[in-house]
Design brief:
Oligomer: single chain
Order of helices and strands: HHHHHEEHHHH
Radius of gyration: 21 Å
Strand order of the largest sheet: 1-2
């Protein structure tokens, strides 16, 4: 819940930043955005929150991950940290029910923190290889390109890296596919040198 709110808000802020970079009326857009945020804040402060937000407010500062992470740390050997446990890798965690654990053995095959999920399956080597491809792509997209497409692609990759903390790791979905397409855009000098 908190991670999803962070992901939605940061995505909207990054889209706004890319728009401000590419628009010609920067001051007008910034001024209208400030007014819109001020009016929205005042109007939202006077509204009583519906009961559907009570659950979010009640669990707003609750730590739900550290116990699971401690069990994962305890179940990992030095070799597991380096090369991971493989695609079917799991760790002992009896404190959380796992729907995939039909036998009730207490082993989980996933962890909700993305970088730890990558380490569980492929080790620190897998995470390092991903970052060695993604971080230079972000740099090339932001600083070595001349168009908004490359800057947006770099932003998408950067957000994916940041979202490894609150969200799960590698899931083959449209978001992950767009990350790799964005990597290709950022590494392409031909696309990077095009005008808008």
């Amino acid at each position: 819940r908190r991670g999803l709110i962070f992901m939605c808000v940061s995505s909207m802020l990054c889209v706004g930043m890319i728009y401000i970079i590419s628009t010609k009326n920067k001051m007008l857009i910034i001024f209208l955005s400030v007014i819109l945020v001020a009016v929205g804040s005042v109007s939202m402060s006077n509204i009583k929150l519906p009961s559907m937000f009570n659950f979010l407010l009640d669990r707003g500062d609750e730590d739900t991950r550290s116990g699971v992470e401690v069990y994962m740390y305890n179940d990992m050997s030095t070799n597991d940290w380096l090369i991971g446990k493989g695609i079917k890798g799991s760790y002992y965690c009896p404190v959380v029910d796992n729907v995939n654990d039909a036998e009730g053995s207490g082993y989980r095959d996933n962890i909700e923190t993305g970088y730890l999920q990558i380490i569980l399956k492929g080790g620190i080597i897998s995470l390092a290889l991903l970052l060695l491809m993604f971080i230079p792509a972000v740099y090339k997209g932001f600083f070595k390109s001349k168009n908004v497409l490359s800057k947006s692609a770099a932003m998408w990759i950067f957000l994916w890296i940041v979202y490894l903390i609150p969200a799960g790791g590698i899931v083959f979905n449209m978001n992950y596919l767009l990350v790799w397409i964005s990597v290709g855009i950022c590494y392409s000098e031909k696309i990077g040198n095009m005008s808008d």
